[in-house]
Structure to design on (850 residues):
């Protein structure tokens, strides 16, 4: 995978310098982008509480952000998310520890309630002192992260003529080497991250709903996208397609992010489709195994020590949390009635928010799901991944109630 | 995101999740397996097909859809659920000719029901077709004739004829507990707002959009139409009145013993959604955002209302039928079951909960079982085409009255509007070549 920690490759002295630079820019346990620092749903954070008092966890703060399934990003003491109300989407910035509102920006947007309640579905991305966000209808914004001042904005649908897929653009922006890569068009779109100008675009066909995933394969940098009928890889420099794995899911909902590890790519989608592992080489990916019994409609699994932990089932089914062996696809356990929630991880422990609002902390183990802490935090539907950053766990439901659990060790 | 209350695999967790058929099939009842085909592989068609597979009495041999991707998805899902490997066809006529299915499920948009159904029964198949029967009155008449002539069993998707709380609610109503009913109000209310035009697009790769439009006008492809939005486009359906209206007006027919309609007047429009837009660049829907239709019968009056804005909690029930009797009011609803509100101060409210298949809140399994039994026993099914035709004619006449802007006197025997040639012309509509309007 890309973004392996660079420190082990350096001498100790440069590592110390590097660490100091890193700390100046951001706290060690920030979560600046979708699925975290390494885009795998896993935080490097260790010093946080995995057990709560009988009365439940301490709640740091609460807020209401409007309708949506947008998750959180955290950096430099600030947390960001999005929501929809009264014909407008709003990008929110709060002080991360107190919930004090720092800024917000609203823009007109459709509710987009096709077969669900509607509202925002994407998650913004922090890039140092900037925040970028993409709406379902193609409005891309680059803000000053501290103030909310707009540096540039462009509607990428209008700019490129690429169609808006049925549920709108959903993948979070990827910032990579000066480019902003979006899951827009059949095989992605790149903007100049400092100006919003189009660098390259792909065919004006439906995008899928995953977040562009940067990978390093055989010495080559690529970005993998869920498109409407395949998962495909493009060169981030020029958008040239490297390969594609045909993958047809109902309504074109290739949404869950692919997981790439050891030259293999794991894909899972919902609507009865299932999951597969592909071996990645220079050309067309080769299927290693395929199973029907792991169908992730929304939030991708996490991969830890050769095991996948994630959701099998759709929002309309009674989805389970499952553990699957990465190498073989063998199912090791299923925790029923989890619904379409999401899982993230830190320090070998799963942080699992059920689709009905119960947050559970449990060791990531192929032998079973045994929470050390569990609390019903939210009502309604929870489709946004919980985010751990600097000891706080950020959770929300689709109607926009935000609850922040204080899991800091005192 | 991508979230869809309408997913095929709502019971996926229960289904056991293997390629094998065994865990999914509830029972393995005796009797031969019917060679079954589906025409129209969207969300609802697959819901019905799932009931067919779950019944253990059907082998899925073929699927038809004008969208190659929809076909691929459906074939994969069928294989996952039953192990069957259905053949796939773009053209339903070719499917019928080659596969000669015993049973055909039809879940295309309304504008296709008549041609699909007539072709299927003429090919010797028993048919399960979604309501409404036709998109215009004379299509429905032609379907009725074709089914009668063929001697095949036709079940129409009026699952509220068999849903347990509807059966018991109707029994309560007919017992006289509500007293003499002089007025019925049927309604379906929801929220909504002004509508902005959506950009037209090229149809998706692999989709024959011209074929999808078929006998109806060819509109530019637009995501608001397909998938899932065509009910709001009058070229392909009849809006809320032609959807929910069929179910609830059918309940009125059931209660009244098929009382003949005498007169109808319907008003409505799009004051909130706005004037319909249709041009090369973009379009909106064109179905009314509200309608009120008054149906006059000899012994009672029935009012239909729908409103797709101002959703609120000022009314106790948002969907269903109120039967107003001398002893009180019966509300027959959907997820809220039925409730009797007595007039007498000393009276007690009576209530029965709904018993529905979730998440979609229907009773398809019961309706499917009834269909199979009707085929086995050579009897008329519960939601047969005779009653479904009558239930469909009411909303379609409401739409005609709304279009001409005046009340219509109806002769229920000849099924003609009395003294109104313009309205009678609207009982049919021109078909787009090469399709030919079916004759009763």
């Amino acid at each position: 995978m890309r973004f392996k920690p660079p420190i082990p490759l350096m001498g100790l002295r440069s590592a110390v310098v590097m660490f100091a630079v890193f700390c100046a820019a951001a706290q060690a346990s920030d979560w600046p982008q979708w699925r975290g620092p390494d885009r795998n749903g896993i935080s490097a954070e260790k010093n946080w509480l995995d057990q709560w008092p009988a009365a439940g966890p301490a709640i740091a703060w609460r807020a209401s952000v409007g309708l949506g399934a947008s998750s959180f990003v955290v950096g430099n003491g600030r947390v960001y998310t999005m929501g929809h109300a009264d014909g407008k989407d709003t990008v929110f910035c709060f002080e991360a520890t107190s919930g004090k509102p720092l800024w917000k920006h609203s823009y007109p947007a459709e509710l987009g309630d096709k077969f669900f309640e509607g509202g925002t579905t994407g998650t913004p991305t922090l890039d140092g002192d900037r925040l970028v966000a993409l709406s379902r209808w193609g409005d891309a914004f680059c803000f000053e992260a501290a103030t909310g001042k707009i540096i540039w904005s462009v509607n990428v649908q209008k700019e490129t003529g690429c169609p808006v897929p049925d549920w709108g653009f959903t993948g979070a922006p990827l910032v990579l080497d000066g480019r902003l890569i979006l899951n827009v068009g059949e095989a992605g779109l790149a903007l100049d991250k400092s100006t919003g100008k189009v660098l390259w675009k792909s065919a004006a066909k439906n995008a899928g709903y995953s977040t562009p995933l940067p990978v390093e394969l055989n010495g080559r940098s690529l970005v993998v996208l869920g498109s409407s009928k395949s998962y495909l890889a493009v060169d981030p420099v020029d958008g040239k397609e490297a390969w594609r794995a045909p993958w047809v899911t109902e309504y074109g909902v290739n949404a869950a992010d692919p997981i790439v590890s050891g030259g293999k790519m794991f894909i899972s989608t919902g609507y009865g489709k299932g999951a597969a592992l592909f071996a990645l080489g220079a050309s067309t990916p080769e299927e290693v195994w395929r199973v029907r019994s792991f169908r992730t409609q929304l939030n991708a699994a996490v991969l830890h020590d050769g095991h996948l932990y994630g959701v099998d089932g759709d929002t309309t089914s009674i989805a389970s949390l499952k553990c699957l062996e990465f190498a073989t696809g063998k199912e090791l356990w299923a925790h029923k009635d989890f619904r379409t929630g999401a899982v993230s991880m830190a320090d070998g422990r799963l942080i699992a928010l059920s689709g009905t609002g119960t947050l559970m902390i449990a060791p990531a183990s192929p032998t079973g799901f045994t929470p050390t802490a569990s609390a019903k935090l939210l009502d309604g539907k929870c489709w946004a991944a919980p985010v751990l950053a600097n000891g706080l766990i950020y959770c929300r439901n689709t109607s926009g109630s935000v609850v922040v659990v204080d899991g800091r060790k005192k | 995101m991508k979230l869809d209350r309408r997913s095929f695999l709502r019971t996926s967790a229960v289904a056991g999740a293997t390629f094998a058929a065994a865990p999914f099939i509830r029972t393995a009842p005796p009797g031969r397996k019917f060679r079954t085909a589906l025409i129209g592989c969207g969300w609802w068609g697959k819901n019905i097909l799932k009931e067919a597979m779950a019944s253990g009495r059907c082998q899925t041999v073929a699927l038809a859809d004008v969208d190659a991707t929809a076909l691929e998805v459906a074939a994969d899902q069928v294989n996952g659920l039953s192990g069957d490997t259905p053949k796939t066809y773009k053209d339903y006529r070719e499917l019928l000719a080659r596969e000669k299915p015993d049973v055909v499920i039809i879940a295309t948009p309304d504008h296709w029901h008549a041609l699909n159904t007539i072709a299927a029964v003429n090919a010797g198949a028993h048919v399960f077709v979604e309501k409404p029967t036709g998109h215009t009155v004379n299509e429905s008449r032609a379907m009725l004739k074709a089914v009668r002539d063929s001697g095949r069993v036709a079940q129409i998707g009026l699952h509220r004829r068999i849903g347990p709380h509807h059966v018991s609610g109707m029994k309560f109503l007919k017992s006289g507990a509500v007293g003499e009913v002089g007025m019925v109000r049927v309604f379906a209310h929801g929220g909504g707002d002004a509508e902005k035009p959506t950009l037209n697009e090229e149809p998706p790769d692999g989709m024959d959009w011209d074929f999808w439009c078929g006998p109806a006008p060819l509109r530019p492809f637009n995501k608001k139409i397909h998938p899932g939005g065509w009910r709001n486009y009058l070229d392909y359906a009849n809006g809320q009145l032609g959807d929910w209206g069929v179910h609830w007006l059918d309940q009125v027919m059931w209660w009244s013993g098929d009382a003949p309609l005498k007169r109808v007047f319907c008003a409505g429009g799009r004051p909130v959604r706005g004037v319909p837009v249709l041009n090369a660049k973009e379009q909106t829907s064109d179905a009314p955002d509200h309608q009120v239709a008054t149906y006059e019968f000899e012994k009672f009056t029935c009012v239909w209302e729908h409103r797709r804005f101002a959703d609120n909690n000022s009314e106790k029930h948002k969907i269903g039928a109120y039967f107003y009797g001398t002893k009180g009011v019966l509300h027959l609803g959907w997820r809220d079951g039925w409730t009797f509100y007595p007039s007498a101060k000393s009276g007690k409210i009576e209530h029965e909960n709904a018993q529905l298949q979730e998440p979609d809140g229907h009773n398809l399994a019961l309706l499917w079982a009834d269909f199979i039994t009707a085929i086995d026993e050579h009897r008329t099914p519960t939601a047969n085409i005779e009653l479904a035709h009558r239930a469909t004619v009411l909303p379609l006449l409401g739409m005609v009255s709304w279009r001409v802007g005046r009340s219509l006197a109806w002769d229920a025997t000849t099924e003609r509007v009395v003294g109104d040639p313009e309205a009678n012309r609207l009982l049919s509509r021109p078909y787009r070549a090469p399709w030919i309007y079916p004759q009763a």
